[in-house]
Amino acid sequence: MHVRFSRGVVTIAIVMLVLAVGLSIGVYQLLTRAPRPLAVPEPHCVVRAEGEEREMDIEQARIAATIAAVAARRKLPEQAVVIAYATALQESELYNLPYGDRDSLGVFQQRPSQGWGSKKQVMDPVYATNRFFAALVKVKGYRKMPVSEAAQAVQRSAAGYAYGPHETDARILAAAFTGRVPRALHCWYPVEGHPQAAGPEGGKQAAPPRPEKAKALRALKRALGSTAVTSRKRGWLIATWWVAHAEEYGLSRVEYAGARWTNDLDTDGWEDGGARSRTKIAVA
After folding, report:
1. pLDDT over 50 (residue 203)
2. pTM metric for this prediction
């Protein structure tokens, strides 16, 4: 039996086929020509040190950089930074929390009722870190003590054993943020109106935010003290601090010792180039 279609039905079928082919071609061209992914990733940081890689939120990176800077100002060994990171990872996951058990607050979940300071003070990462280190250096033999025991000697937590499992991550972060491992931190954040943030929509793009370098420098000095680059390790500590705080102060480039970080989604870390000085760091 033969089925016959009317001319109208055949015409409609041909039109639908042409539309389907045209739509497929259009979608293909859009996907292949778009300079950026349509789904823009969230702001993020990546730490690469000790043969390992860890992802972080930008707030976590800022807190980690602050802890390392305060330790450097107090001339403390890397082991002190490891203990601080293990503690902060357990207590707050390296966030400056405005809440906690009972009246615990901040990065280290310090309690104003236990003499750690006022609510405003313990919510200040620089102040909170200084208080933590002031207590840690009073622990006899903390450098050779297991990390969990040293942390517990400061925190006096009901679950002191919980600090130990964070030691590996703490050592990776300490290697990066103290500057011992160069080029260890890469961060990216979207700039409003920038193609990486807005997607390939065309039209005039807004300029990136104006860098607040003077404000950032005051914050760095408050944590670190002198910003002089007196060694390669210190230089990388400072350069890493700038990258961690780039979003907060609208920075898009950091250069040090022949390496350059840029706030570019297409880069996967520091690249060769930029200022070659080992005594000065360029930011913009």
Report:
1. no
2. 0.83
